[in-house]
Amino acid sequence: MRQITSGGKPVHNLADLSGMKIRTPNSRFALDLFKSLGAAPVAMNFSELYTSLQTHVVDGQENPLANIEFARFFEVQKYLSLSSHMWGGYWLLANGDWWKAIPTNLQDVVSRNAVKVAERQRSDIQKLNDSLVVKLKSQGMTVNEVAAADRAAMKAKLADYYARWKKEFGDTAWGLMEGYTGKLG
C-alpha cells in the first residue's frame, strides 16, 4: 500500500490534505485521486523528489514504505501518515493469444503457483512494512495511522472520482476490481 509523508503536519483527515502540495507519479489516476481529496498534486519524477522535499517545492509525497525508507525521505520529512490510500502491487501478465495456446494443464500449474506466490509475497510485504514502520520511527519520523472513520470519509469524498474511473475502465474491469476491493463509490 502507498502511504503519505509530509514535512509540516501529519495527515489525519481530509482537512489535512486540503491544499497540500503533494508529489505523485505522473499518472492521471494518482493526480486525479489527490485532486479529488482536495490536495494540490504535483506530477514529478522520483529522481527529483528528495530535493523537492528538501527545498519545500512540495509539502509531501506518497509512496510504499520501502521507497520511503530506501530514498531516505525521513531525512527531509517529519511525518509518516499510514493512509493505505492506494494499492501498489506487481502484475503477472501474458499475451492472451499465447496463454490460450498453451495446454490447460500448464495454465493450471502457472495459475495455481502464481496464487501461492502472491499469497506468500503479501505476507512478506506485511512483515517488511511492519519492520519499516519501526525503522522509520527510529530514524525520527512521527508515525500516525489514519483512523478508519477518516479513511471512510476520504472514500466517500472519492465518489465522483470512482464514477469517472469506472467509466474510463469500463464495467467489466471495474467489476473485477470491486471483486477484490469491495464496492467503490
UniProtKB/TrEMBL annotation:
Keywords: Signal. Signal peptide: none annotated. Pfam families: DctP (PF03480). CDD domains: PBP2_TRAP_Siap_TeaA_like (cd13603). One of its GO terms (biological process) is transmembrane transport. InterPro entries: DctP_fam (IPR018389), TRAP_DctP_sf (IPR038404). This is Uncharacterized protein. It comes from Vulcanimicrobium alpinum.
